[in-house]
Amino acid sequence: MNKTIKTISILILALLTWCNTLLAADFGAIDFEILEGEVKTIEANNIERLAVGDGKLVQVQLLDNGHILLIGQAAGSTSLRTWKKNGTEQSYRIIVKSKSIHEDIQMRPTINMKVRIIEFRESSLKQIGINWDKNTAGPSFFVAKDFISTPSSSVVQNIAGDSLNMVGSSQTPLFLGSTIALSSTISFMQTIGHATTLAEPMLSCLSGQDASFLAGGQVPFSSVDTNGQAFINFKDYGIKLNIQPVADRHKRISTRISTEVSQIDGSVSVNGVPGFITRSTNTHMNVLDGQTIVISGLMQNNTREDIDYIPGLANLPIIGEMFKHKNFSEEKTQLVIFVTPTIMTPESLDQYQQREETQTQEELQKWHSMLDSGMAEISINTRG
């Protein structure tokens, strides 16, 4: 009996001594971090042998110079223990981090998209030389280039031989370059009342995400669910834009643009709910940082009736129509959408603001030079 108690006491004492040794080693452990697939070394000397807890997380190899080579295999943590020739031990806690976590913390660039929605008189566009394809069934797309104006006409400078077939247009030219002269021409047309800016939003999103814009309204209509309960839905109408830009490290922007133009059709109605006339198209274009994409071909006919009459006499029965004069006028307008994507980073924010100020000054200088040289003497004769 005494021998049994003595044996148990010796075993307990040995176990406590061994546990204290392990605890002392763990308290002195050195943390070492490594990524999946990364190769690192631990500088050490006179290492005789080593042991790793989980070889699936990290691959360990003892080099000839006494250093320890580590290769991260999978995310997790394990222990590494080394023994030197003089009997000294050292413990390490190896922490292997996921590579995806390291990649996710890298911020994607933000892309700002300056959008201008402008309505032009079609006759004015033709007289200053802007005449898009008449066969366009819906919106067409191209990248803006400088306008060249002369006292007799104004044309769009085309790159000879360069053309690009896009959705909705059989011959849609591709124009590249600065938009300073384009802005000058638009400003001039707005000044004389032949162009109206309908909206000028600034959209922003991360590279690879999408941004949406709606310039219009909603029409309510009632519906009935399967239980016979009535509820109200809303239908959007107007100009809808959905833009999805993706930027690469060379500041090239791959842009997907979906556009839809819809308006209420009063000639069609079901249970008091009007119909809609809708035109839509999709395109995918590659542009450089700061270039402008132009969406054109959104036509609309406006009919106006003007009545001139002599007060009092025009209200007489039967003969009152003799003292009235009716004038019907039809005006065609074209909606043009300009989209200018710009890559924004914390470093480029100041550069963007400086570029905006520089372009404004250059635009004013170019416009003044056009006025001084007589290039802006454009005669526009329209009715209505």
> Helix share of residues?
10-25%
Output the number of helix runs.
5
What average pLDDT do the residues reach? 69
**Oligomeric state of the chains in view:** single chain
What would CATH call the architecture of the domain at 27-97? Sandwich
Short key terms for the protein model shown above:
6-stranded antiparallel β-sheet, 5 helices, 4-stranded mixed β-sheet, 384 residues
Description:
The protein has helices spanning 2-27, 99-104, 122-127, 180-191, 349-373; strands spanning 30-35, 39-42, 47-52, 58-62, 68-72, 76-84, 89-97, 110-121, 140-143, 147-149, 154-156, 164-166, 169-172, 195-199, 202-206, 211-224, 230-247, 252-270, 273-288, 293-309, 324-344. The strands form six sheets. Strands 8, 9, 14, 15, 20 and 21 form a six-stranded antiparallel sheet that branches. It has a four-stranded mixed sheet with strand order 1-7-6-3. Helix content is 20%, strand content 49%. By secondary structure, the protein is an alpha+beta fold. Strand 18 (252-270) and strand 19 (273-288) form a beta hairpin. It has a domain at 27-97: Sandwich (Immunoglobulin-like), CATH 2.60.40.1080.
